[in-house]
Structures are given as structure tokens and as C-alpha cells.
């Protein structure tokens, strides 16, 4: 079981002006996503690179 | 009328482009009011273009099958001198100062952009129930959604107003309306069609592609759209091939993967039987259907959601100073994205690479995989939950379940109609291929199209 974040406190810390009524609404899907993603993020090999690459070839713009 | 039918008539002189434009404008006047598929209709522009293109034909200058054919683009693509709203209150008065690559390429091929189609606000959702420009209705059943976010494009093609409308697909936004409206819809490989000049949503997930009534019309549109564009650093320099399938497409020797996990679970019974019918058709046409276990799509969908929410919030955060300009559903998603830590985004991009490798191995044994495009036919407008196989599910999550993850993989995916529900709603099948295998997918799709009665247009 993943412990859930205090989304309201996070929003306040980030100074995001999200009304309290909307915080209640978004906390449920965020908790669900957090629970699924936390397990995934711990599962892949530690040396895995990002799917996004950075191209330094001269023709890249 | 399809693009290729129109092309034949234009070339033979049976019809002029000017006449096609007038017919299309009449169709918009007649059919669009209950559908609300268009945000902007470009009558003056279309008439002027038709005159010039008819003149070119008269001089023997023929650009190809799109020459003089009226088409539409989702109102997410910039077009010089024309309003581009993105389906958003933020941009309701924004007049573009340049052409997007898609508009440029369509016009270079001779197509006439006759209108810009309605969409889910900012392309961030699947209902196309737009709070600022009104909801789009499904031509097969007006109280149902057309899917989204390219809902206006799906509705305009399914209603026979235009033979092709461009959509974008960040988590299924071409394939869902294709499935719900009964059209063909192709999400090309990431990097095959330039994103330049299209309002972004998910920077590493956005794809541009056509919705059409036939596979061949998708092919000729791809002939116009595909190719490298230095203004979009993600576009590939791989050579572009002609996408038109042969007259007699064949499935002989084709290895089709038939997932025995995930894509066969929690399915509407009519969707299940229609897609089973496609599998049987594939076998009868000489394909080898191979049972496969797909990698963890639940994980892939989770990764895709983290990436999309992070990227969309990064792109749109600057506009959140005025929350009154957003619909409630889009605002909720943007708020969620702002609360995800940067480490989640980076780890989602790392997990994405692992999933790409796992899917790559799957394609060692099969040439494509066949899945339903959606587990359900089109839900009703305003419906928030749906019962699938006895289990209640959020409409958005159900509609995106089979399509979202493919965006993270960047693979090409073709949706095409394969049946009708008892309620008269279209059912779609999805074929996913290796990167840059659009030509192959279109040949497979053409074989199915010839063998399976096509869903009639609304």
C-alpha cells in the first residue's frame, strides 16, 4: 500500500491557486495514479535511460 | 463521395472543383446544424481556391488525387488568416499568422480546406462535448458522443460532408472518433507527419493523421502529409513511400497477433463478436492468426497518463491565470498535472523505454496486432460511467483503454469499422504495427474493408 500524498498541502506549497472544492475532486484520480505509478517507478532497471533523447548533431535544430 | 471518386470525376471533367465546393457547402448547411461538427466554415476561401484549381486543371496542371477536393482540418491547426480556436475560450479570437505543416501540405497537394472542425476543448478529452463552442453529436445517433478529441472530424466524415478531415491523436483522439463514428482513422508513427503549427498538448505523444470513409482515402492523404520537416525536430528523414494499397490487397503470409490478455477483457458483447469476426475473416483470407500475450498495458496506460498530464500542464500552465476560461474537466486534468513531481515525469519516460523494448520483442513474432479500438460503442452525451461486462467504469478511461498506450509507443495504429451494434452504433477494430509500417497496415485494412461490409455512413 502506497501512502497517499497531501495534495492540498502540495498545492499550497507550489502556490497553485486551486480552489478547495476542486482539490477534493482531483485528489481521487491523483491517488489512483500515484498508487499505480509508484509501483512501476520502482520496478524498472536502475540504469534505464529516458525515452526522450537529446540530439546534438549539427543538422539538429 | 470519396477523395478518389472526386478525383476521377475532376480529371474526366464530369465535375469541377467549384461544383464540389458548392455541394460541400450545401451539405454543411443541411447536415451540420444538428451535428455541430464545424467551428469555422471557409466559404470564401474555398470558392477562391476552387476557381484557381479548376483553372490549373484546364491548363493541364494536375497535382494529384487531392486536387480540387474539399476537406476539413481540426481547429487545432494554424491556417494563415483564419481563426484557430483549439476549441478553447482562450483562443476564440486568435487569427493565425502562418500555416501549419499539415495545412501547407494539403494545399500543396491541391486540397481545399473548407472548414475547421469542432473538438474537445484543447484536444484534452474524448467526448467533444465542448463547453465553449457546443458539443459535437454522433451522426449515427445524435444523443451519443462522436468520441474525441477529433469529434468534429469524425462526425463530418461519417455524415458524408467531407471525404477527409484531419485529426490529432494524443491518447486515442483519432481512433476513438473513428470507432464511434464508423470511419477509418490512422494514427501514423510518431515523426511521420509534422506537428509544426498544430497547437500542442502532449509534446511527446501528439500525432497528426486523417479520418476518412475509406482506407484508400487515408492512403492518398498520407501521401500528401508524410515526410520530414526541419521545423519539427521529431520528424523522421526516412524516405516516404506511396501508401496506396494494391487493387487486390492480400493477407497471405501475414502474421496477425491476437492478444489473449487485456484486449479481450472487459468488453461489450457486441464489440467482442464483431472483432472475433475480423479475426475469422483474417484467417479465411490466408493470414496466420497467432495468440499473443501483450506486455502490461495497464502499466503502459499509467505511464502514458503521467506523461500526458505532465506535458499538457507544462504547455498550458501559463494560461491558468484565468481559470474561468477553461471547462471543468480540462481544468481538473491540468491541476492534476501540476501536482505530479518532475521525478514522476522522468521516470515515466524511462519506463516508456522499457515498454518500447518489450513491444519490440512482440513484433519479432507477429507483423501486427489486432484489437478492438474501443471496448464500448459510443456512450450517450453526458454519460460519465458505463457498465462493461458487469463492471462500472469511467467513460473516459473505458474509451481510451485500448488506444492510449500506443501513443507512448509511437507505433502506427489504424482504426476501421467492423460492425454495427443493435442500436445502430459503429464498432471499430484497431490494427497496430511496427514503426513506419503504415503502408502495410493500410494493405491489411484494405483487405478487411473489402471482406467485411463497411459500416454505412450516417
Any key phrases for this structure?
heterodimer, A: 61 residues, mainly alpha, 2 helices, B: 458 residues, alpha/beta, eleven-stranded mixed sheet, two-stranded antiparallel sheet, 14 helices, globular
Can you tell me about this structure?
The complex is a heterodimer of chains A (61) and B (458). With 61 residues, chain A is an all-alpha fold. Chain A contains two helices and no strands. Chain A is flat and about 50 Å long. Chain B has 458 residues and is α/β, with parallel strands linked by helices. Chain B has helices at 3-12, 17-35, 43-58, 101-108, 151-158, 175-181, 215-225, 269-284, 297-316, 328-339, 342-362, 395-400, 404-409, 438-451; strands at 38-41, 70-74, 112-117, 129-130, 134-135, 164-169, 184-187, 207-212, 255-259, 288-292, 368-372, 385-388, 391-394, 413-420, 426-433. In chain B, the strands form three sheets. In chain B, strands 1-3-2-6-8-7-14-15-11-9-10 form an eleven-stranded mixed beta sheet, sandwiched between helices. Chain B has a two-stranded antiparallel ribbon with strand order 4-5. Chain B has a two-stranded antiparallel sheet with strand order 12-13. Chain B is globular, with a radius of gyration of 20 Å. The model of chain B has no long low-confidence stretch (mean pLDDT 97).
Order of helices and strands of chain A: HH
Query: How are strands sequenced across the largest beta sheet of chain B?
Result: 1-3-2-6-8-7-14-15-11-9-10
Number of helical segments with 4 or more residues of chain B: 14
Tell how many strands the DSSP assignment of chain A holds: 0
The beta-strand count of chain B equals 15
Distance between the termini of chain B: 13 Å
Averaged pLDDT of chain A: 87
Structural class of chain B: alpha/beta
Strand content of chain B: 15-25%
| Low-confidence runs of at least 5 consecutive residues of chain A | none
